[in-house]
Amino acid sequence: MLLDRDGTLVEDVPYNGDPDKVRPLPGAREALDRLRAAGLRLAVVTNQSGLARGCFTAGQLDRVHARVEELLGPFDSWHVCPHDDDAGCDCRKPAPGLVHAAAARLGTTPQRCVLVGDIGRDMTAALAAGAHGVLVPTPVTRPEEVAAAPCVRPTLPAAVDEILRRQDAVAPGAPRAAGTVLVVRSDSAGDVLVTGPGIRAVAAHARRVVLLCGPRGRAAAELLPGIDEIVEWPLEWIDPDPGPVDPDRTRRLVRRLAAVGADEAVIFTSFHQSPLPLALLLRLAGVSRIAAISDDYPGSLLDVRHRVPAGVPEPERALSLAAAAGHALPGDDQPRLRLRRDAVPAPPPRLDRPGYVVLHPGSTASARACPPELAARIVRALAGAGHRVVVTGGPGERELTARVAAAGGVDLGGRTGLAELAGIIAGAAALVVGNTGPAHLAAALDVPVVSLFAPTVPYGQWGPYRVPTVRLGDAGAACRDTRAASCPVPGHPCLAGIDPGAVLDALRLLGVRADAPAGPAGAPRPDGDPAGASGPDGGPGGARRAAAGAADRMAVPAGGGGGR
């Protein structure tokens, strides 16, 4: 548990070097004691540019921190950036250096950390390290920072309530041994991928796991560990373009489900889907124990009726259902997205070596796709800064990827299945992508993501999970929370206003260095690879040189008082 200091734990007194001015925020001590009682380790991560500016000494800062601990109790570790914005350091938030340092000191990884702060820099630092962020706004917090935050709570005690609730929801209980378990996620590839941790939790306790999925998720299902058999069957109440309900076909589905011989079923759904139609068919197929998330009254259709508040990340939503059904993820398996190693091929030889940047401009939902003009400008900017760029897309996106790659990238549009795409992403230094399936492939492969995230769905629920990420785009756009598949606002303003320079800044923040041979900016080499002159931040020590500038161009801007 990582906490910002000023505005989060104590009142924000600009450039404070006086212990007598330390005033805890209401409820802070009680909230921290609850975290300590739950066994969480606590660290403070704080920007203190007053040291660089000569506003106070290191000794005065130590006395201020001693007073904080006197009032709020002990912390396991303190991490301070003493630099000003123009220092170009790796530790000043929004750079993720303090998060990495704190995680290492606490003996864990950023992916197992939550950072609570009050401004956009805190959230950017958390996401760029792969940690989770919770924003507790104050009067200095900008509206755009609130809109872009992955999770918002009104006070520190409320943030602690949420963190402990989510921890308890996936905690192991009494394990339930099972024979054959039918798990269900009938949706797109990305939906199946984010259900992976929940499926692994079931597999840890079952003799055999059979997955029921639709044709759109079949390729993703074949990449997941823990599945012994796949049953492919589209469901009319889930598919976005369903055919009419056919009684004969429904009877065939019941017979197929009965043939699985499942002792129990766990129905994974998205937050807007109902498990009850399938639960009825499973009862007809003779399945005696069924678990699902359902806000609607299930009658006798469910044995385990689980409820999850809105906004929980989809992987945790699935994990909490598995735990409620008696199948918690075992302690030796981290709650991350994962793929079967034997299912991911090596990148194609034409890509020469790892370290390129993949741009995936398309999406099955056009509202979440990167506008083609912007995608081409991003490729041109990346190639000009010395990055090798690979453009990927599905079979129906060849025209799009050819147009985008012409600006200086390698066009692989329509040339890969999902497994081959995973292999390409596995060799990448980063992926630039919208809110679509390849973002979850990158998370499963631990590849950093520059997320061009259209806010039609909540970022905290659908953003790349536990992987270093920088979010770009207008989080407060008019399309926010509409769940629209096609852009409801002319001109796609939530993404169209992204500056390609912000993508370069995001890569620097993520520590991604340009590695293409020097050459004319954006000019393709004869073999199709882009070439570009190395930028000033491409050398050693320059990976995050533009961290401060990045914060001002991203969806989570810098902000806060003078002590930040």
UniProtKB/TrEMBL annotation:
- Gene Ontology molecular-function annotations: glycosyltransferase activity; metal ion binding; phosphatase activity
Taxonomic lineage of this organism? Bacteria, Bacillati, Actinomycetota, Actinomycetes, Micromonosporales
Q: Which family does it belong to?
A: Belongs to the GmhB family.
Biological process annotations from GO: carbohydrate metabolic process
Cellular component (GO) terms are:
cytoplasm
InterPro entries annotated for this entry?
Answer: Glyco_trans_9, HAD-like_sf, HAD-SF_hydro_IIA, HAD-SF_hydro_IIIA, HAD_sf, Heptose_bisP_phosphatase, Histidinol-phos
Query: Which NCBIfam families is this protein grouped with?
Result: HAD-SF-IIIA (TIGR01662), Histidinol-ppas (TIGR01656)
Q: Which Pfam family, giving just one, matches this sequence? A: Hydrolase_6
Its subcellular locations are: Cytoplasm
Tell me what organism the protein belongs to: Micromonospora carbonacea
Q: Which UniProt keywords apply?
A: Carbohydrate metabolism, Cytoplasm, Hydrolase, Metal-binding
Record region (Disordered): 517-564
Q: In terms of domain of life, where is this protein from?
A: Bacteria
- Protein name, per record: D,D-heptose 1,7-bisphosphate phosphatase
Keyword Hydrolase tagged? yes
